[in-house]
Amino acid sequence: MKGLLLEMKQIFKPNISNGDLYRDDQEGSSRTTMSGNGDTMIQTSGFHRFLHAKYLNPAQAVPLYILAQILGSIMAALMGEFIYGIKSDVLTTRPGQGCQAAFLAELIADFIVVFVIAAVTQQARSVGPLSGLVIGMSIALTVLITGPISGGSLNAARSLGPAIVSRNFDRIWIYLTAPVIGALLGALMYRVLRLRPIS
């Protein structure tokens, strides 16, 4: 653990002259400056460094990421029940207007969120420091719109954790399939539009 902290300390050094954080790229001479944009918190945590290809490949990182999300969701449901007395059945996600409407709402919401994230992060210069705001607003709006229809889950792990704790798997298939399909379609649509020549 001490070695990990020392390496993270070497990666990020405060630049006192302008208050920004930077990291020196060890493979080359380039320097990445991070200021007030939305991904600063994620980048300064240092964990992106350890998800780089030379540390972990996607085949190892993605299953661990999914497992961590599911375990986090289960722990949150358990903490809500034991510490605050919130019954985990209350936290389960349920369709408000039927299964078909809930499935479509979750699919479309995840499509929009992933498309916006891909567009903003791949073309950061067009949005600039507002990328975090744009992503946050897209998530907030999709949750507000889909809340009455599907419960506004947008994440399979968020729905799976309370379902496991409460042992209530009624209609969980909606929240395990629709977000994944919507996210894949959003990423695919962005890629198709990105590869299309501008006329």
From TrEMBL:
The keyword Transport applies. One of its GO terms (molecular function) is channel activity. Gene3D superfamilies: Glycerol uptake facilitator protein. Its main location: membrane. It is found in: Membrane. Keywords: Membrane, Transmembrane, Transmembrane helix, Transport. Pfam families: MIP. It is a multi-pass membrane protein. This is Aquaporin. It comes from Gossypium mustelinum.
